[in-house]
Design goal:
By secondary structure, the protein is an alpha+beta fold. The chain folds into two domains: 207 residues, Periplasmic binding protein-like II (D-Maltodextrin-Binding Protein, domain 2, 3-Layer(aba) Sandwich), CATH 3.40.190.10; 167 residues, 3-Layer(aba) Sandwich (D-Maltodextrin-Binding Protein, domain 2), CATH 3.40.190.10. It has 14 helices and nine strands. The strands form two sheets. Strands 1, 2, 3, 4, 7, 8 and 9 form a seven-stranded mixed β-sheet that branches. It has a two-stranded antiparallel ribbon with strand order 5-6. Helix 2 links the parallel strand 1 and strand 2. The longest helix is centred in the first third of the chain and has 15 residues. The chain is globular, with a radius of gyration of 21 Å. This is Extracellular solute-binding protein. It holds the Pfam family SBP_bac_8. InterPro entries: SBP. Keywords: Signal.
């Protein structure tokens, strides 16, 4: 459970980051760039392999672009989730506590909910305010209203939708209430992953809580939304208990799949007909041919929780000005198209202005015109803990 709590705090956060694994993709300066005079900006990231590949693909394009490669050279340091090395927050905390400056922690790529985990081990002013006037392409960003604070610049969105088998489900649920009723009407054909192992399961539970709370709650880490709204929390977990016997079963017992991939495996092999899923994971698997073409994505109302992944600059970074130039490139239309083509990352810019897209029809079907954005800080941990205490034992 502790592993997921870390992941949930970082979007699926605070996974291990080893220096020995960090050079997952060093790139060379483009021909013509004076390497001795061009600063190197290192982006530190973590998560799934697809995230690493997308960050690296944009870094390679940056380093080949003469409009940018004379200002900075980008290197990616990354660890894929599931390693057991020292976590990124721990490494940042160690550097901070040792009084280090001018480190290669130039840019931290993370889900913004993971910021609190890092600040808890460093200081409230560990990340510097970012001057967006020095990032011309920030004007391209369409989700400015969702951004919490001035230390975070988003570069991709993440969204969960309802993934379903269109061969067996002709009319998928369009609302949360319709979904809950569908689960009861179709016992054994729905699953969500253990929230302590995957963000799609966490989202399913979290949405059940926040659908009952004022809209402002989803943008606040204030624990009053938990302590002063116990009835709403109780109702949501009562709903989870009510749905429990209607979920996917093996050997006569309800099973909560491990990780996001676990529930998608059940959907791909048609052991279930429906599950909440990250859009980019479904599309990536369809592109690889491991997910049947019959699997479709459906948004529901109110929408499942979404999030933004972005960049922060620590005050221990060695070249903050060069970092701003790199962030500017990641917000360009060219870079946003690369992110989509590499991992089907939801763009944070006007998608009508993107060119040379693979599966542009998929983007049109899953485009986030609006993002039901959640930023609830440490409350995430309490959701996971309560589910583990009240719902998980029902499967034993």
């Amino acid at each position: 459970m502790n592993r997921f709590i870390q992941k949930a705090l970082c979007a699926v956060a605070a996974c291990a980051l080893a220096l020995s694994l960090s050079a997952c993709g060093s790139t060379s300066p483009a021909t013509g760039a004076a390497s001795a005079d061009v600063p190197t900006v290192t982006i530190w990231g973590y998560g799934g392999q697809e995230v690493r590949e997308a960050l690296q693909a944009v870094a390679d394009a940056h380093n080949a672009d003469p409009a940018y490669n004379t200002k900075a050279r980008v290197e990616i340091q990354f660890v894929v989730s599931g390693t057991s090395e020292q976590s990124l927050p721990d490494r940042l905390a160690a550097a901070y506590q040792a009084g280090e400056t001018d480190t290669d922690f130039d840019i931290i790529a993370l889900d913004d909910s993971g910021i609190s985990a890092i600040l808890a081990q460093t200081s409230e002013d560990f990340f510097i305010p970012i001057d967006t006037s020095k990032i011309p392409n920030y004007e391209n960003v369409v989700f400015k209203d969702n951004i919490v604070g001035d230390t975070f610049i988003p570069y991709r969105g993440t969204a969960v939708m309802l993934a379903y088998n269109s061969e067996t489900v002709e009319n998928p649920p369009a609302t949360a209430d319709e979904l809950y009723q569908w689960i009861k009407d179709n016992p054994g054909r729905f699953a969500y992953c253990d929230p302590s192992t995957g963000g799609s399961g966490y989202t399913f539970v979290t949405t059940a809580i926040y659908n009952q709370l004022p809209d402002e709650a989803r943008m606040s880490p204030d624990t009053k939304w938990e302590t002063e709204h116990t009835a709403e929390w109780d109702n949501a977990f009562a709903l989870m208990a009510e749905l429990h016997p209607y979920l996917y079963q093996t050997a006569g017992k309800v099973q909560y799949p491990m990780k996001n991939a676990g529930s998608l495996d059940l959907l791909a092999t048609k052991q279930i007909d429906m599950t909440p899923a990250f859009v980019n994971m479904v599309l990536s698997q369809k592109n690889m041919g491991t997910m049947p073409e019959s699997i479709k994505l459906q948004p529901i109302e109110p929408a499942f929780s979404g999030a933004l992944a972005g960049f922060c600059i620590p005050k221990i970074a060695k070249d903050q000005e060069a970092a701003l130039s790199v962030i500017d490139y990641y917000l360009s239309y060219e870079a946003q198209a690369i992110g989509w083509n590499t991992m089907y990352a939801s763009p944070v810019v006007d998608t009508a202005k993107l060119e040379n897209l693979d599966h542009a029809d998929w983007l049109e079907e899953t485009n986030m015109d609006e993002l039901r954005y959640f930023s609830i800080g440490m409350i995430q941990k309490d959701i996971v803990v309560r589910w583990a205490e009240e719902i998980a034992p029902l499967a034993q």
